[in-house]
Design a protein that fits this description.
The protein is built from 9 helices and 6 strands; from the N terminus they run H-E-H-H-H-H-H-E-H-E-H-E-H-E-E. By secondary structure, the chain is of the alpha/beta class. Helix 2 crosses helix 3. The longest helix has 18 residues.
Amino acid sequence: MNDTFRKNHGKIIRKNKIKGVISLFNTFIWDFDGTLFDTYPMIVQGYLQALKEYHIDSTKEEVYQILKEYSSAKIAEKYQLDFAELSKKAKVYEEKSAYEPQSFTGTKDVLSFIVARHKGNMILSHRRQASTQALLKKEQLADLVTEVVGPENNFPRKPDPTSLNYLLKQYGLDPKKTVMIGDRALDIDAGKNAGIASIFFDNEHLLTDIQADYRVTSMKEIEKFV
């Protein structure tokens, strides 16, 4: 799979040079929650329920803001709780949620657009791989993604670049032709720390101080980077 992936990348680069087309990126590494899929409603509910076990009453607005602005680890820090324990409790409640997450409008189209041009999609998420794969398969998206990196890989959490560096090395990716796409600062910072470009998926206009290389407000806009 790796050799084919590398060969395809080489072919598309040469083809574009012949036609005089400037191709910005060959590999698109996506965050999952809040970028490809709208999973935040059940994540927020999971943490609200988990916090109640500690007799802490928060609001969905507060939890959501913390998740978007920082990460779930910040929730544990705010209330001086053990992150691993809190996260485990939240996942249990999340899995019981009746909410059915869906991909954002245009997700399948842009992933297909990338693959049709012999380029690659990968996912780097804090979500468990089995959960990510199940949601991808539900919408027939799994075959459009080369690899899903999750907590099972035991890499440090974003914005640490270790997981991105793994993908760069594993697939022989050109850092100049690879981009990280996400909806939070930690995604953008992970890209910077790995020496690759970043695209901020700003579909809510909630965060303002995000220092990404590019900014989009819809999936359709990603096509211009292919």
